Amino acid sequence: MAEKPLVVVTGGAGFIGSHMVDLCVADGYRVHVVDNMVGGRAANLEQHAGNPDVVLDERDIRAVQPGDKLFEGASYVVHFAGIGDIVPSIERPMEYMSANVMGTVHMLEAARAAGTVKKFVYAASSSCYGLAQTPTDENHPIRPEYPYALSKYQGEMAVFHWHDVYHLPVNSVRIFNAYGTRSRTSGAYGAVFGVFLRQKLAGKPFTVVGDGTQRRDFLFVTDVAKAFWAAARTEKVGQVWNLGAGNPQSVNRLVALLQGEAVHIPKRPGEPDVTHADIAKIQRDLGWKPEVSFEEGVAKVVANIDYWREAPLWDPDSIAKATKTWFETLADKGNAPS
């Protein structure tokens, strides 16, 4: 019996990556996961425990060198690994550049050396657009507002450089606002879902930034994984696609669905009022479309709410302390000389 084809998923024990692993296994592939378990969780892969088709390597991606056996015979590489969050990137920009740019280069070189990779798909970030006009298409000007956004965009530039110079077949998917089960429970103050779910478990009010009318293009994680799988298996190469639901939802709508009280905290500099992906290109090119409605997705998350029981519990005071650098650094950014 022929051996199953291989996919390498970096960050595969993390939020989106673990759902990517599920999808690949269900489709009849072996999966090698590279995840240093800083953001990943073993529980995210527990459904594959004992499955010889899923191998977890807990190295940092920067420790992987060209010729690594983990990539031997790989058909596809889907690269999610890296570090996120705005505030830590402002405080520790070198770490972000190292992990998100040089880490990506290590993955590109490992894929190139394998010589079998049909597609390298990069998980890019819509933060590269900065305070964007909406709906935002792939030709929108690039204007990163903070080091995280810059590091993710420079990682994407490296991906296309390897395509241009070394002819590595690549595609890039710029994620807008992914949410869903298995999203991160630890680390810095960050995504609204993790913050709100822990607050709901504790019976505390939701800390709503500003007046809550800001809207985000939330896309459920299984739809995200399906888009990446389509981006891997398409014949198209050298493409960038924006990925969202194309249907932004307000934070106030999320509060209503989660059913709780709210307390308001100051609006933050460098954050857009609306994120809205123009998804016409990805729908046209890949035949992909979002399948899980916002209401269905929130219900799925609430059904798994115990997952966030050990997450940090944030309140207005702790958020103010955590975001102090954010306010100090970005408040006058618009007044800097161009």
Automatic annotation (TrEMBL):
GO molecular function: GDP-mannose 4,6-dehydratase activity
Xref: Pfam families: GDP_Man_Dehyd
Domain NAD(P)-binding: 9-300
Keyword Lyase: yes
EC number assigned by the record: 4.2.1.47
Keyword flag Lyase: yes
InterPro entries cross-referenced by the UniProt entry: NAD(P)-bd_dom, NAD(P)-bd_dom_sf
Key words of the record: Lyase
Classification via PANTHER family: DTDP-D-GLUCOSE 4,6-DEHYDRATASE-RELATED
Descriptive protein name: GDP-mannose 4,6-dehydratase
Species, as recorded: Marinibaculum pumilum
